[in-house]
Queue: 4 jobs
Job 1
Amino acid sequence: MNILCAGINHHSAAVDIREKFAVATHELEGVLGRIRTIDGLAGAVIVSTCNRVEFYAASVCPIRVMDGLREYLNERTENTGSLLYTHVSPRSVRHLFRVASGLDSMVIGETEILGQLKQAYAAATECGATTRHLNKLFQHAFRVAKQVRSETRITRGSTSVGSVAVDLAEKIFGDLSGRKVMILGAGETSERTARSLVSRGVRTVIVANRTFERAAQLAGEIGGLAVHFDHWHKTFDEVDILICSTAAPHPVVTREKLEPLLRSRDGRPLFIIDLAVPRDVEAAVDDLENVYLYDIDSLEQIVRQSLEVRQAEVARCEQMIDRHVGSFVSWMRTHIDHCT
Amino acid sequence: MDALPLVGATFCFLLSFGYTVLVLAGGRFRLGAANMVAMAGGFLLLSLSLWQRGRVEGSCPINSLFDVLVFMSWAIVLISLLVGPPYRLSLMGAFTSPLVLSILLFAQLAPIGRSAAVRVVRDPYIEFHASLSLIAYGAFALAGIAGLMYLVQDRQLKRRKGGVLLFNLPPITDLGIANARLLWLGFGLLTVSFAAGFLSGMPVNTLKFWTSAAIWGIYGAMLVLRKVHSLPPRRTAALSVGVFVFVLCTLPAIQHLSAPQ
């Protein structure tokens, strides 16, 4: 028995090609039914995400099945089937283990792909399209992914400015529920960051913008309060996190302005996220006790660090995966199904 | 044979410390069950050692500097086991085991008095006062550890460089809260212990009295100032480290002045 894999992903094809291959959830049963008619194919699982469309199949006649699969995909995707990469076991097994572990993802170590693989496998099982070998393969892949994630640092750190800001907020305040956020300047990045914070339990968001209508609009969208830009300091008392991204050419938040506001805070920490260029917050603000100031450069540096840590872990992950491929291939050798 | 439980306890804390170093060097920051087992094992062996020593001395085993150091180590581990898990202060064990290991190694290797001076008159108030004082110092030690963790986390956050230590230490707000609560616990215990000391009516050496009063007064002042928000968490953390170092330094003198003549 062989495990075959045919597909395209973000490494091999641009999005305009990938979208032609994509298999929507409602099409899945039909497509699985169609490819199961390919002569020699015993079972199949289809993985279709925004970054990859892959067909995993079990067969004792790999060449015949691969030709059949290409023929079907050419029909479906206007003769772009030649763009497919194809792997036969053990390379196909290794490929699936790498995909499940997040090593083949656009952001190395991301964990969403594992959930997507589980969904794809569950859908194929529901359609009765899996076989003993595919069941064993996918169960093994899920185990490998779990082990790689728990025993290496492949998922370490955050990989976007928004998620780094949220992680830092949690390292300052612990639980974010009940915390208050103020946005100074309703830019796109500050909005995304505020939304990430709200998703982690932040209670109140106050939006101050030069254009009050824009502040009111954003406040309405995320369930916050809008205040006039010139009055931001009047509602500052209970704010825990300040996100700045105005287009002002000079600092809006200065040490001189902030120091008196901090006196009434009873030693509560203040986390300032300055996403503006030029910066909205005077550098001297960072010298204040209990104030933690991060500008866009420092947030991006942490993102880069996380990616470097993950990149450095790839070799360890590959070694683990190689061991698992070996053990799976040994299992396959002892469980041979013959061509009928 | 009598020394075996103490040697075993020291070995447990050495294991805990070695395991911590290995885990941290490997880039993992979850100490997990192995560290907890080593700490708990060390605690049980320390308890056994104190029980043996208590039987020999016929009183609470705090009659020599050696006894005092072992008893204080026991109190530090007890409070760390009680406080660490509920406050989810991961890594507190990583900071506690080297401190306890150092105290135990010092007690066993340094040329300090081991023979217990046996009291002619046994007064339960005095024993209660002395043992509770040492448990209070254990709480202050843990407050110092939480304070040290606070300062490390503050530095990590101020450096703005990220890094694994930043993302694996507990949130700085939680560390500040733990630091203050441990100070309150230590202060409460010390106050009760001093009250018991007064009730015993024992004669007190003037130097010992004023040193103890100074320690009590400093911790009390820190807590009052913290309560009225005049002492920010960072300074409270720094002071709790500094004052505990002072307590450790004065401990041999206080023990010497407290020893039954």
Job 2
Amino acid sequence: MKKIKVIFLIICLGILALPVRGDDFLSTPLGQELIKLGIKFINNPGDFLFNLHTDNEDFTPVRLGRRGTIRMNFYPTTFPATWPALNLKVKLLSDIPNSWPQIDLVAEYGRMIALDVVGNMSAQSSTSTVKPSLTDYTYGIIFTKAVSEDTRIFFGPKLSKVVMNLDLSEPVTFGSTTTGAGFSLQKMMVDVNDVFFTLGIENYYSQTSYVLATVSYGFKYKKLTSRIGFYHKHLEVGFNIYPEGMFVVHPFLGWHWYF
Amino acid sequence: MAALKDWRIAPYYNFSLDQGVSLPSVGDWDYTINLTNDVGLIVKPTAEDSVVGFYEIKYVGPGLRTQEGEKFSDRYMDHLVVARYQRTILTDWQLKFQTNYLTEYRLTGANELWGQGLYDFNQLGIKLAVTKPLGEVKLTGGLQLSTIRFPNYTDLLSEIQTSTSTTVESSAGKQDQNNYQLSLGASYGETYAELDYIFQNYLKQKVVTDRVQPDGSYYSSDLQRDGILAFQLAREQKIPGLEWLKIIPELNWRLRFSNQNYQHFENIGDTVPVRYFSNYFSYSEIIFSLPVYLATSKSWEISLIPQWDIKTYADRPARADDGSFLDAKQSNNIFLITLGLNHHYSQTATTTIFYTYQSSSSNMKYEKYLPYNYTGHYIGFKYSLHF
């Protein structure tokens, strides 16, 4: 039962969705490669989860001429990781030429539904006092200044946090831990938070469509992330870059509503 | 000084990301990311004065290397802050005063953490430069002082060999240095030339000798002193009637003089060296590049950039693949050629698809730790936003 739950969890994390189909598959080259990825994940789960959390974030300014934005990221968080999040951006002050920049407040909150389900499923049988959960949030402030008719530059600080609690009464093993070609999972407590500073530029190529690029630097872990995104009326696509991440490039797909 | 509302203020922003796959003929393939983000502000309170503030963050990921002594898996991250004040005096003399601070984090292993790399360093510099036009020639002279500190560096070999309680302290800080740089530059139309001399003064690194010293080591009382003479010549060549063609040849010639020598130990832990080599680190290096840009339309451009790099050591012998020293002096040759297709889809944004071929060859055949002889391919795309 526990193995099923952990498999369910890992599928939801979107990592080892394919290999967990039996020991035969784990011994294939693809299975071995995916176990290596799993080991890399186990060695530093916080980093990978933090990257997924960054996929969920929308730390960019409110669009020109609008007052706010509500946004959800679909891939790779809501699907396949069952980790939806709600982003809210509100414009406090409009960009005044030769004076104040546009000022936006940004907040994001998300949680992994799969872990909540696992927690509810094991609530009666588990001896652990820790209820499985994964939550993330961000809040920050963005300053934006138009530098031409179609280009704006923005910057601002944000606080980002991911917390994951997982404590199984017995370890679950994938592959063979004695030969080093496998890993075992029993407890995973992740609490990663950092203050980032973000710099970015956006370039409009129509009234509703624009491209943007950002670079963010986290002071505590010296973590660098970057985003290139193409924003349309509601749809946004692009990719996030995590130079030291388990997966360097995360394509993303989000949906937003302006008001 | 003009009122605040009359100040002219212009921002500057540059984002550049290239990513792709690098395939060396030795070692593993890697996914390569190089990222640069610059942001700056130019303020002109009056017609004679200007102030520039600039910040750059740069990440160089794993991939093919053009510098000797680096592995394919190495990566680094830079934070650079520059503040510059410029003033025009006596009609056409330009004075520049600049301060800059650079922090570089280096990772040379898979499990290292940023900020704990052996070769991390902090550099603080100040620079004073004067520019004066003489007819159509613009002359520039400059003096730069910089301090470079390696907070995590220690001489690991020395620590292993001596293993005394004072070793850790005495082996730290050996890369710390104070540098002085003199520059002379001249530009004429689209041609630019510069001559630099850098005095590199190590604060703690002693010069190795061939005799055992009273303290039992092979270090003399002399500190390491290096000098670098560098010459650069570049020109943006346009051809009349062929406005769609642009060629930018550039030559860099560098001579390094070092008073440091080398004692070769056969194994880590040995205390008696087997060979002594004087003038081991002096070399000359010539780099020539010939970028060619062909504009096929207003928004499309093809670029072809060949580059040759020849580095020859004055007295360092080459080594055979078993590590034995040869009579010939070490010489490294690198040839790079990059073919790119650039699309400027607005005044701000550019996308490039590129392919780079690299050929590195050397008579240094001992490649247990670092690669010297290999070919490599790097294919990917580059994305940039610039204002």
Job 3
Amino acid sequence: MYNLDKEIQDTRVRLCLDCGKCTVVCPVAQFDVNFNPRLIIQKRLNSKVFDIKDGAIWSCLSCHMCFERCNYRVKFPEFIIALRGEAVQEGARVMQSHGGVLQAAMHMMSRQELEQKRIDWLPEDIVLTEQSDTRFFVGCAPYFDVVFQDLGVNTLDGVISALRLLNKAQIPFNLLANERCCGRDLLLQGDKKGFLALAEANLHEFSRHGVKRIITYCPECYSCLKLEYPKALGNYEIQVVSLVELLAPLIKEKKIKLGNLTCKATYHDPCTLGRGARLFDEPRQILTGMEGLKLVEMEYNRERALCCGASPWAYCSAVNRQVQGQRLAQAKAVAAEILVTACPKCQIHLKCAQKSEGQQDGQIQIRDLATLAALSLKEVS
Amino acid sequence: MDASVRIGVFICDCGLNIAGSVDTEAVTKYAETLPNVVVSVRNRYTCSDPGQQEVKKSIIANNVNRVVVASCTPRLHESTFRTCISEAGLNPYLLEMASLREHCSWVHLHDREMATKKAKDIVKIAVARAALLQPQTELEIPVTDAALVIGGGVAGIQAALDLADGGHQVYLVEEQPSIGGVMAALDKTFPTMDCSICVLGPKMMDVGRHPRIRLMAYSSIEQVSGYVGNFKVKVRRKARYVDETMCTACGKCAEACPVTLPDEFQQGFSTRKSIHIAFPQAVPSAYLIDMQHCMGNNPVACVKCVEACDKHCIDLNARDKIVELEVGSIIVATGMGIYDPTKLTEYGYGKFENVITTMEFERLICGGGPTEGHLVRPSDHKTPKRIGFIQCVGSRTDNRGNPYCSNVCCMNTVKDSLLILEHYPDTEIFVFYMDMRAFGKGFEDLLRRSKESGVHYVRGLPGEITEIAGTQNLCLKVENTTVSRLEEYPLDMVVLSVGLEPKAELKKLANILNLSQTSDGFLMEAHPKLRPVDAPTPGIFFAGCVEAPKDIKDSVTQAGAAAARSSILLNSGKIKNQAIKAQVLQNKCISCGACAKVCPYSAIKVDIKAKTGAQITAAACAGCGTCAAECRFGAITMQHFSDEQIISMISTALSEDPETKIISFLCNWCSYAGGDLAGTSRLQYPPNNRFIRTMCSGRVSEEFVMYAFEKGAPIVLVSGCHIGDCHYISANQQTKKRVERLWERMKKLGIRPERLQLEWISAAEGPRFAEIMRGLEEKRQKVTQEEIDYTRKVLAEQRIAKKASQKQMPE
């Protein structure tokens, strides 16, 4: 499954200058002395001491901060994924968080002949355009709200808000009743086989319904459908756009008007949307489209944004907790009332961190971007 | 077969370079069978002394009167063999070289059969051309005994002095108000720890008073025309508003001036006035007014300097002047730019006051600097006790910066560390590096001294610098890769060891002089090993950092080399121009003027009314051949790249199995050179290409291309220099137009226009050349036999119909 020689070439790890800049900016390396991206490369390529069962390779958050700063743009996160794949091939057992319930759901969804009932949550006022060849890809939000009920996350609200915004912008779309998980999490934990099964199942659905364009709100689905699917599936002609890409220009050109939201907010760039897709301005344009909203920036923002500490439902430890704590502290430092994010995983992980800090007064509110935007619309109409 | 033509073919093994992948014995035997060949000899190293002796012996013994040397690229040894055959009594232009190496053996390493087949073809094509070669006489043109040196840094100064001391008139043009360049702004130099301005100053003075050097400071090059030995240069002498010859640099004007500005020479750490002198040791030693910031202009609001000047040498109404010069050679020594690290937000340059660059450090520690050599840090002027140096800032990176190594930064930091300890022995110094490059004479010694003196060398490049509010001290985060640990260093000051880069304005000068830049942006030399200071354009030479980052020693060495090579030219008094010239056949010329319109050198005059025929100034003709290709009446012939020769090469190339061959027209200066580079880099591509070298892509006429299709070529490539980079200034613009016309013609005739490809390939684009060759083969495989048959039929019919009114094509 994994051709490590090809991965070494594609990821350019041989060009590593051994300078260590990646280690300095890596959020995991800050807290975990056993995790050192530079050293992992050197050990695997140029020494005899590499052990594929070395647990360190599971700590990477795929936040891409190393890639952002690397002189030769070595694709370290992709290299780690290849090492994970190699480990799984050699029989390593992947730790699965939350009892493996999400992986179980993913594997179930990868069966081609599955028929799901997955859009029962759809409110009546949302308008679907049946003939549209554009589909909104929902992602795993409905599952998250069930599994993480105790955290009070409502990622599905974000999805519904996204649909409301699309309606408001008069962008026609339909939903896929038999949508599968995009598979990114399985890819990230070295389960390429599982990922391909999901991808093929999804492609089957897309072809079956003549889908030409996909809009999605979840940055991970966006990255997966836009970048990973063409690589894995070859013949893939579907255009993939992010909700924020569609809405921001409309708001900037005043084609749709958001309502009021008086507060002091700070925006957390999700790694996949920011550093990954380079969509830094669009979410901010949506936020500042709301009257009364004062946007302040955290110390580490945009290209330097600090990861929310999410993992692909695999390894999750005290280190993730420390990274999350640092992010929440940065939000506190700018005295924002609301920490806005545009990714369900960021929402889940930051709320989980908040919960473990214990309920305190003055804890920042963590809100979803689309939810806020749609809420402000209610104020107007 | 013309019995008077006797061709000698010399096949070279080139050791294993050719013989390793081509069966040179088979090629030699094959050559014997070709028409007009009287002798075919195989040689191990033809360019060597014994090899050349054998060639000469063979010529004489067999009464050879045309020579084909099938070896390496003509761009390497054409002149070697021209000299060789002329020593055997033959006119040097009776030589044809066939490249069996760069364009065959090196690029088809793994297919001996196909490589040998191609080699045979290459020899066959060369033999066909050789049969039609004619002796030529080279035009002798006088050389103006004067040199222009552009740039007055240490390299330009050295070149100017060497040339002037050698007896030649030199014009030194420097854009800054004073010569001296970057070296004048340094404190000490490595590895000797000499005071920079102390060693440079005397040289600057020598330039200033040398009887044979005319120094034009505060001037820029406006225009250059002409050719080797005969350049005409327009120089803009910018208005100083102060008479250089009378100013005594007393400084009273500056005292009186009310306008205060940051002093660029002191890196903005101190101020100067609007009227100022660049630095105390400036040559010429004269003040000048920074008119953009002067209050004495329109309306006249302030004349304080004029009033203060005892010698009355300030003129607020001065204007720029244009001066015209005639020179025989040009040396480009315009130096380097310095990387601006503001984009590296992680280091805080521009935000944190105590993060500075190496140039700023030089001024702070220099006795002539803003603090008279007391090393203080910018925020509070206190002496820093802990200083960090970060290496490779803006170098060795694809991520905000330049990919190359800047050569001098490692040693510069080593020198800086010793400088600091000399003055402040208690300072803790940390150098953060990836590699310490101490490659030169005395360098390793200096590095040892630095280490022995207690400077800490930490292997790792910092990822982030933060500033501590209040103290404005810095905290530097780095992975110490030697021990694989993240470490934090509290520091008082951080010096960014920034890299060198080409000046932003270099492109403008390169365009004026018709010079190519490499992918790094520095100027491209004629050959990186054998002609390191020559520009590809004859008569132009390089010295110093304009060619690549280097230290003072190497700059001075190059300057001496450039001066020597320039001297060769100037001493000769006259040079022989290559005998590749356009000639008008007056009996066919109808004075339409089309040729004059396309000549990039304006070397053709046509009186359309008087109909006296086109007149070509041979000395100005560079031999691009664009006029010949443009003439629709066959009235211009190119000496030594005639229509007959090229047609013969095309038909020979396609005489057997034409459907398997791709005909590629490559221009000598760029695309053919790109092919050479692909060869030296051993990049592999399919062996279906047959190359026809012309001096310029402008030589390739529409007729050549159609003829190739008529003879059965599935794909034809026309290639040349990138637009804007044409060696013959703008001839490739004509190529572009011609190919566009051809595409229209092909469409009308029902021939797929994709079968004619147009690519611009520079001499530095070896990998791209190979990629294009692979692409061409893919395209060729999609051309059907029906298409080729149809094309041949249609074009043959067309030609017969047009034979009466067009050029006569030899069959």
Job 4
Amino acid sequence: MKAFLLSMALGLGVLTPAVAAPAAPATGDVKEWADAKVAACAPKPEERRFDQTGWLTDIRSALTLAKEHNRPVFLFTHDGRMGLGRC
Amino acid sequence: MRAGPLSRTDVSETLNKYFVPVYTSNEDYREDKRTGAPPAVPPEEVTAYQKIYRAALDAKLSTGTVHAYVLSPDGRPVDSLHVADAARDDKLLQMLRRAVDRFQTPPGETLVKPKVQSSAPPVPSDGAMVLHLSARAEGTNPSDDSWHAYPSEDWIVLTRTDQAKLLPSNTSAVKVGTSWEIDPALATKVLTHFYPQTENNDVGKNRIDRIALKAMAVSVEGGLARARLDGDLRMCHPFYHKHTEDIVEAKVAGYLEFDPTTATVKAFKLATDKATYMNRGFDAGVQNVR
């Protein structure tokens, strides 16, 4: 992780742009530009593989289902909001 | 974990066929230290978690706040992994397969239909507007097994009062070229989320050094006015939870559409034109979804 932060600080490495988009027009209407830029920022299908699992987000519902279906529970506890990619 | 095993197809298939998968956010299970607000989940849910945690300790399993557990069908913890171990190689998959062998669990249908995990929060039906934001650092792609595998998202709710602050005082007098400044507090409510993927996501720790968001009408026709938005942000957002001077510098642009007669906001979009965080480029875009 230290190496990662150091590379960030030094701007090392070849990075693909966050979003390949032209700069906003200097004047006038920017609707077309903003529509495209906002769309380009949004998650793509291949970035939502986490959503392929049938998750629950409360323990009591999981315990109830586990008992009903005689299945083990997988529980992952974390800081932040994994569903949002903010963790 | 989302950037690692929890996005792997073999792990997902195993969870769906043999398990009841659940994830929880620790913030929802404890009192907010800053505001004193009680846990967001009901007390019974907190008790359920604490019972598992204590049982794991009693069973001499590894425990922690960021942790993976396997529970028996009757709710007893039988296996666990610290996140650092769970994210390594096939450790998580191996733990899952041990449980399937132990309980002789037959494969079955997914018990809960998979769905997009990022969804709009419930909002009152009083005209509140929901904004969806996506942010991605340079180099974001699923093959990155660290912070930049996936973009980050946020949901922001603008009340009717908030929406009114986007507009000029006399909307019916707006003409092409009319300009006004957006209330800085409202600009902050949106722009405080303009940062890429980081471990710390407590925007209460952000420090706004400079913020401005200006609007200028570029068209008024057919009962709809459109204003161009231009903004500028300098903000400290610590990468980790401890304070560090990690700076966002961003120029943003977008537009706002509203009915000048009723002073009702119809559309709002804003995106980074040029932005850096810790000297690395990133982009963020936000739009109203309802």
